[in-house]
Amino acid sequence: QTVLQGIILLPLRATCITFILLLAWLFASIATFCQPGRGYLPLKGWRRRMIQTSLSCLTRTAFFVMGFQVKVKGKVASLPEAPIFVAAPHSSFFDAIICALTGMPSIVSRAENLSTPVFGTILNSLQPVAVSRQDPDSRKNTVAEITKRALSRGQWPQVV
């Protein structure tokens, strides 16, 4: 019986996750299409709301389809309360759960991730702080960018 469930559920889940991923890519593409100041200016208005609501909902749905049910205890800190979130141990795809539950904040990511097909478009829509491993000044630049965003008084989303 368990093998039969796996034979049915695995393709069904894979199909649903693929559909959710393509839908997320579509929303991210629409929100960043002809974006002024691409990467240097924060998303505003409908673009920011679209990313926060659609990607948060789609990410939660994808994790539900994968079999994860996350319950939040307490209240998520608002942007004025905490412009920076720290996620630990920051080692797996489970970080996406934190992003979905906190309204899709900006993240710190390797610059190479931005050129990945489909995922790169979704990642770009979150306005990440890109870290280049080849640049010797990357740490200093990353700290400066995170500080700039944290002190922006709500113009940039929270940073994880």
Automatic annotation (TrEMBL):
Transmembrane regions: 12-34
Keyword hit for Cytoplasm: no
Chief place of localization: membrane
Gene Ontology terms, MF aspect: 1-acylglycerophosphocholine O-acyltransferase activity; lysophosphatidic acid acyltransferase activity
Coiled coil, from the record: none
Stored InterPro entries: Plipid/glycerol_acylTrfase (IPR002123)
Domain Phospholipid/glycerol acyltransferase: start-end pairs: 70-156
GO cellular component: endoplasmic reticulum; membrane
Location of this chain's protein in the cell: Membrane
Pfam families, sorted: Acyltransferase
Keywords attached to this entry: Acyltransferase, Lipid metabolism, Membrane, Transferase, Transmembrane, Transmembrane helix
GO biological process, one term: lipid metabolic process
PANTHER family: LYSOPHOSPHATIDYLCHOLINE ACYLTRANSFERASE 2 (PTHR23063:SF21), PHOSPHOLIPID ACYLTRANSFERASE (PTHR23063)
Family as reported in the entry's similarity comment: Belongs to the 1-acyl-sn-glycerol-3-phosphate acyltransferase family.
UniProt name for this protein: PCAT2 acyltransferase
Protein species of origin: Atrichornis clamosus
Lineage: Eukaryota, Metazoa, Chordata, Craniata, Vertebrata
